[in-house]
Specification:
heterodimer; A: 142 residues; alpha+beta; Thiol Ester Dehydrase, Chain A; 3 helices; 6 strands; 33% strand; B: 151 residues; 5-stranded antiparallel beta sheet; 4 helices; 32% strand; elongated
Chain lengths: 142, 151
């Protein structure tokens, strides 16, 4: 499988398709089961508030997974991803309603590297808050 | 307060083998909304050159986070788990994890530092195949919030 994005046609500053993700309590429960991360602050409001959080918060790794999809949905080939890292800078509170939280992910080509690879910088915004820092990926193009 | 720097460089025995299940890959991909056919449809995965369903990139943490416990609960380290938050996560891939991979995790304490009253532990956990080759190397920064911190 090869990346559907051609290295020669990409320039620094290119913007990847934006991704808006709505996160509800159901999504967190499903992710808890699928990932095995049953930390109470991701599903129990009483305990979340007891430890000083504004509400139940999304798993950092759930947010990271969505950030990764910005890159893997772009190239389509999951084997093209070589490196992927984030800092968890702010929590994503998920209220107990039908709307949940919305996080907007964007990616921009920051650098062209050898071996037909590019570095992509990713941002993740929940309202006015940036919830990931230094989020970036190195991906091999075709 | 204060992690023990003597444990820097300590490596932990390999975790028990973890067999990556096809339905687990599907379940995880569905939970994060990843609809890439190579994570759901075996014939699509094989047509793309993979031996089995492809786990999404962050699936590695499903395997490593359990194995990390041996380091995090090392009594010599002195980590107060109640104050712990996940600060940073990084993956370096040699190849994607695929269903039917039989893997173990080897964890080593890479660094310990203190920033603004918080202890920060850098833990490297490598997901390795039966021959010992690293499939994914993961680095996690675990932050133990200082007890003096006002929230």
């Amino acid at each position: 499988m090869a990346s559907r994005v051609a290295f020669d046609q990409v320039v620094v500053g290119d913007v990847l398709p934006e991704k808006r993700v709505r996160i509800t309590r159901l999504d967190l429960v499903r992710y808890a089961g699928a990932s095995g991360d049953f930390n109470v602050i991701h599903w129990n409001e009483r305990v979340a508030k007891l430890v000083g959080l504004p509400d139940v918060i999304a798993h950092g790794m759930y947010t990271m997974a969505q950030a990764g999809r910005v890159v893997t949905d772009w190239v389509t080939d999951p084997a093209a991803l070589e490196e992927f890292g984030v800092r968890f800078t702010r929590p994503v509170p998920v209220p107990d309603d039908d709307q949940g939280a919305e996080v907007t992910f964007t990616g921009v080509v920051a650098e062209k590297l050898d071996g037909q690879r590019v570095k992509v910088n990713i941002t993740a915004m929940c309202g006015d808050a940036s919830v990931l820092g230094r989020a970036n990926a190195v991906v091999r193009l075709s | 307060m204060g992690l023990n720097p003597a444990v820097i460089g300590r490596q932990y025995p390999p975790s028990p083998p973890y067999l990556v299940g096809r339905e687990k890959v599907r379940e995880f991909a569905q939970a994060i909304g990843d609809t890439n056919p190579v994570s759901h449809d075996l014939s699509a995965a094989q047509a793309a050159g993979f031996t089995d369903l492809v786990a999404p990139p962050t699936f590695a943490f499903v395997i490593t986070h359990v194995a990390m416990a041996s380091a995090m609960f090392d009594p010599d380290l002195g980590l107060d788990y109640a104050r712990v938050v996940h600060g940073e996560q990084r993956f370096t891939y040699a190849r994607p994890i695929v269903a039917s991979d039989l893997v173990t995790v080897v964890s080593v304490i890479d660094a310990i530092r203190s920033v603004a009253g918080n202890d920060m532990l850098t833990l490297r956990s490598d997901v390795v195949d039966p021959a010992g080759a690293v499939i994914v190397s993961t680095t996690s920064v675990i932050v133990a919030r200082g007890s003096a911190e006002e929230e």
